[in-house]
Amino acid sequence: MTASENTGFNTRAVHAGQTPDSSTGSVIPPLYQTTTFAQDGIGKLRNGYEYGRGTNPTRDALQSQLAALEGGKFAFSFASGLAAEDALIRALLVPGDHILMGNDVYGGTYRLINRVLSVWGISNAAVDMNDADALASAIAAGGPEGATKMIWVETPSNPMMKITDIAAVAQAAHAVGAVLVVDNTFASPYLANPLALGADVVVHSTTKYIGGHSDASGGAIVLNDAAAAEKVGFVQFAVGAVSAPMEAWLTTRGLKTLGVRMDRHCANAQSIAEWLLARTEVERVLYPGLVDHPGHELAARQMRGFGGMISVQFKGGESAARTVAESTHLFTLAESLGGVESLMNYPSEMTHASVKGTELAVPVNLIRLSVGIEDVTDLIEDLDQAISSL
Ligand SMILES: *Cc1c(COP(=O)(O)O)cnc(C)c1O
């Protein structure tokens, strides 16, 4: 049996793109820490390998694994999530085109689209993706120079944990010939596969759950359309924001255990979210696994679990949120998410400082938890001592 489409997720995670090295039998495909490849004559390449920016076997192994796990035909690996997003937009759009994004996308995505790509001539607008009427009129309105060509959804969103109906937005996008891009970073391919729900492109910050160990930055694009894939491949090669061999190798290693890690992230986060709900200091717990979360039923339909991310708002406002953020011992105060260790983040001054004062601004009484795979009783004890200090 090979790691075909018919095998289960964990089998594909371990085997896809991971054939033992043909010359030595090395069970783990080697780390090809090289920038160039010897030619057997001018233009006579061995297995097509020529120059590291173009192709590298370690990156190829990761790309095969990513395609197999997202259920896509083509995958491309980049130096960061934002490098992948930038390459995707430049590959598929031209100046004058318009992007419509969710009004709660990751701050860095907003900054890239609104401050870097706008200068390049791509206009944008933000809308509540859960409001079908607002979405329809925003799509129809388009931009100052051109029609809506790309719709950008993040679900669950960072850090407001909103759930967007991928199939419904795909239908709205396709009705006007726009492509739907889904940032699947929070769910990871283990919990959701947006391509199967009608999305045209999936993007990831592999820095997060896919890598899973907070030791390798990266980004990915996965898609099925061959013509679009050729354009993405060209930008990847021509601009060169590729993942370095070491980063690709570490990401490949991390990805093999995504399923077992995610199961624990989900179980720990569910317990912590329920525990937080019962605290009198807490105003609101944003976690799609809670039955009172507005996206709970939708998440149950389009995801296979609710993930490891929780946002919490405190009755005591900004000072309470800041105090808790600075009082934990096991939860480390740091940006990023999705690693085996639990992290604490105060988005309005940290990960989402770039959207301060915009319509995407994050409430100042909110903290975001990336729940790790530690023993949940220890994590709850840590949160208990931090919240009890209020
Ligand atoms: C971190 C993140 C990104 C950006 O990825 P980098 O690897 O930091 O460039 C994009 N989307 C989401 C949802 C993220 O959490």
From TrEMBL:
<feature type="compositionally biased region" description="Polar residues">
    <location>
        <begin position="19"/>
        <end position="29"/>
    </location>
</feature>
<dbReference type="InterPro" id="IPR054542">
    <property type="entry name" value="Cys_met_metab_PP"/>
</dbReference>
<dbReference type="InterPro" id="IPR015421">
    <property type="entry name" value="PyrdxlP-dep_Trfase_major"/>
</dbReference>
<feature type="compositionally biased region" description="Polar residues">
    <location>
        <begin position="1"/>
        <end position="10"/>
    </location>
</feature>
<protein>
    <submittedName>
        <fullName>Cystathionine gamma-synthase</fullName>
        <ecNumber>2.5.1.48</ecNumber>
    </submittedName>
</protein>
<comment type="similarity">
    <text>Belongs to the trans-sulfuration enzymes family.</text>
</comment>
<dbReference type="Pfam" id="PF01053">
    <property type="entry name" value="Cys_Met_Meta_PP"/>
</dbReference>
<dbReference type="GO" id="GO:0003962">
    <property type="term" value="F:cystathionine gamma-synthase activity"/>
</dbReference>
<dbReference type="InterPro" id="IPR015422">
    <property type="entry name" value="PyrdxlP-dep_Trfase_small"/>
</dbReference>
<feature type="region of interest" description="Disordered">
    <location>
        <begin position="1"/>
        <end position="29"/>
    </location>
</feature>
<dbReference type="InterPro" id="IPR015424">
    <property type="entry name" value="PyrdxlP-dep_Trfase"/>
</dbReference>
<keyword id="KW-0808">Transferase</keyword>
<keyword id="KW-0663">Pyridoxal phosphate</keyword>
<dbReference type="InterPro" id="IPR000277">
    <property type="entry name" value="Cys/Met-Metab_PyrdxlP-dep_enz"/>
</dbReference>
